[in-house]
Write a structure and sequence with these properties.
Blueprint (H helix, E strand, L loop, with lengths): L17 E3 L20 E3 L36 E2 L10 E5 L4 E3 L3 E2 L5 E6 L7 E5 L6 E6 L22 E3 L4 E5 L4 E7 L4 E8 L18 E6 L5 E5 L4 E5 L6 E5 L13 E2 L4 E4 L3 E7 L5 E8 L20 E3 L3 E5 L5 E7 L7 E7 L12 E3 L2 E5 L6 H6 L8 E6 L6 E7 L9 E3 L4 E9 L5 E9 L5 E9 L11 E2 L5 E4 L3 E7 L3
Parallel strand pairs: 3-30, 5-36
Antiparallel strand pairs: 1-9, 2-33, 4-36, 5-7, 6-7, 7-8, 8-9, 10-11, 11-12, 12-13, 14-15, 15-16, 16-17, 18-19, 19-20, 20-21, 22-23, 23-24, 24-25, 26-27, 27-28, 28-29, 30-31, 31-32, 32-33, 34-35, 35-36
């Protein structure tokens, strides 16, 4: 750490946090829905075509290895794995529906076990869970603090604060922003978790509405920078802050007032800066010598001014994605949507390109872009609605595209587009196989919905294969990420609850 001298912080006991370890909960397969005429397999097994020549994403020294640490794989938020995912050979499907909760961000500890935080609107607080990576049996669960009442106008199922984003650090500890606006750090034990440190960030936030009835500045996400400061952002009032974990010192910067400056996604960090998208602006910030966040540049992006179907607010639905060569990208909220690429350093030409994607009145994105070298993969989530998808009545708009930055770094162009229907998943990319892993939906002539593990060729945009995960609403993954484990197994989760996986057979 720079800036401060080391000072040990005593661990704080939290009565609201209870650890359950030892006896695992048995794997209960998720039941299928109605019988469907949809095929169980589309396409054929793929042959790995590695993508080479891509600069290696730098390893954040305060995070677990890239690919295992967080929702979007690394602090660049690339959503890219160097290792392989499935090739669709003799697929082995496993599921655990024996618990409630959508586990949005599956990650992996040093032993390859699945670690995630799982939330459901039917229970008062999220839970930190550990699963066996093969059987998906639940090994341990920790009750996190209860959620406060929903923010005005924000449905519980679209509340990203205090139970979605977390990361595993370089010492194999879970670092979580809790619903009570504390940053909790848990050690990962052989068969459970232990609360190591409780950092009280709430004391540094404006935590009440004018009426005083509910906290408004709610922690959404936290990530460490290359010097060990833990950065965080809040949903309301657009607060960006830093926490020095050695001293407990907290510094904050408020970007605005109210929901006009909300931050509902995570953020990206490279060796010098943090990149944050509010529902109005894209910003780059650095920490000064005292650890205070300072805005380096700020750009207002195009905005149609409404909350499109599938979106959580009236702004960008993306966590920023850093690319090699000095670029960072988001999607805006224009109509049609644009992929927007910025230079990471302050420049008179900050915006490299704005590329319209999908159609007018039919384009929305609520997931981060995949960043592969100077390529970006964007998906269309327009039309997704969790309650409509529970009945199968709602259809979402199709579309997935690859956008590349031009060789002269002065613009961007479309490489390919396909018509995949990707309602809400956080898709991922494997450099080892050359495949984009996503989660798609088909509906048969009787209205039965089928959910598919789908792999798309990075070079061409063509579907390599689709494997039916299940039919009916229990297989809707509701904004959860796909995660690829050390052995190539892919995982996802969903609402109202469950965890499922697919791997190649022997």
């Amino acid at each position: 750490m720079r800036r401060t001298s080391p000072l040990a912080l005593a661990a704080t006991a939290a009565a609201v946090v209870a650890s359950i370890a030892g006896a695992a909960f048995a794997d209960v397969p998720i039941p299928n829905g109605p019988t469907s005429t949809l095929p169980s397999y589309v396409g054929s097994p793929a042959t790995a075509q590695p993508v080479t020549g891509i600069p290696t994403i730098p390893q954040n020294p305060y995070m677990a290895p890239n690919g295992a640490s967080s929702t979007h794989n690394d602090s660049w938020q690339s959503d890219v794995y160097e290792g392989p995912g499935p090739l669709g050979k003799d697929p082995v499907l496993t599921s655990n529906g024996g618990f409630t909760g959508d586990c949005i961000s599956p990650t992996f500890d040093r032993d390859g076990r699945v670690i995630s935080i799982c939330s459901t609107p039917t229970e008062p607080g999220p839970k930190l869970k550990m699963f066996d990576p093969v059987t998906l049996d639940e090994i341990a669960s920790v009750n996190l603090p209860n959620r406060p009442a929903p923010l005005n106008g924000i449905p519980t199922l679209k509340d990203t604060s205090g139970g979605v984003y977390f990361y595993i650090d370089n010492e194999n500890r879970v670092v979580n922003v809790a619903p009570n606006n504390h940053v909790l750090r848990f050690t990962i034990e052989e068969d459970g978790f232990a609360l190591e440190t409780d950092f009280d960030v709430a004391a540094h936030l404006n935590t009440a509405y004018p009426a005083g009835d509910s906290p408004k500045q709610r922690l959404v996400s936290a990530l460490p920078d290359w010097d060990g400061l833990i950065w965080f952002v809040t949903r309301y009032d657009g607060v960006v802050g830093t926490l020095n974990p050695e001293t407990g010192v907290v510094q904050t910067l408020q970007l605005g007032d109210g929901l006009e400056n909300s931050i509902q996604n995570s953020f990206a960090i490279d060796k010098k800066r943090a990149y944050v998208a509010t529902n109005r602006r894209m910003l780059a910030l650095e920490a000064d010598e005292d650890g205070r966040p300072v805005v380096q540049w700020s750009e207002t992006y195009q905005n149609a001014g409404d909350v499109k179907p599938s979106q959580f607010d009236d702004g960008s639905g993306t966590t920023p994605t850093v690319l090699p060569g000095g670029f960072v990208a988001i999607t805006d909220n224009a109509d049609p949507l644009n992929v927007v690429v910025y230079r990471t350093k302050k420049s008179k030409d900050q915006v490299v390109c704005e590329v319209p994607v999908f159609g007018k009145g039919a384009s929305a994105n609520e997931n981060s872009l995949i960043g592969v070298g100077n390529s970006l993969i964007v998906e269309n989530n327009h039309g997704y609605d969790v309650m409509g998808f529970q009945t199968g009545a709602v259809r979402s708009k199709p579309g997935q595209m690859r956008i590349d930055i031009d060789a002269d770094k002065k613009g961007c162009h479309v490489v390919w587009a396909n018509d995949q229907v990707i309602p809400s998943v956080i898709s991922k990319m494997s450099l080892a196989t050359g495949l984009i892993y996503t989660y798609t939906r088909k509906v048969d002539e009787n209205g039965v919905q089928g959910w598919y593990w789908t792999a798309v060729d990075y070079r061409t945009g063509e579907t390599a294969f689709s494997v039916l995960a299940g039919t009916g609403p229990r297989w809707n993954n509701h904004y959860a990420a796909i995660a690829i484990g050390p052995d190539g197994t892919q995982y996802t989760s969903g609402f109202p609850g469950g965890l499922w996986s697919m791997r190649d057979g022997s």
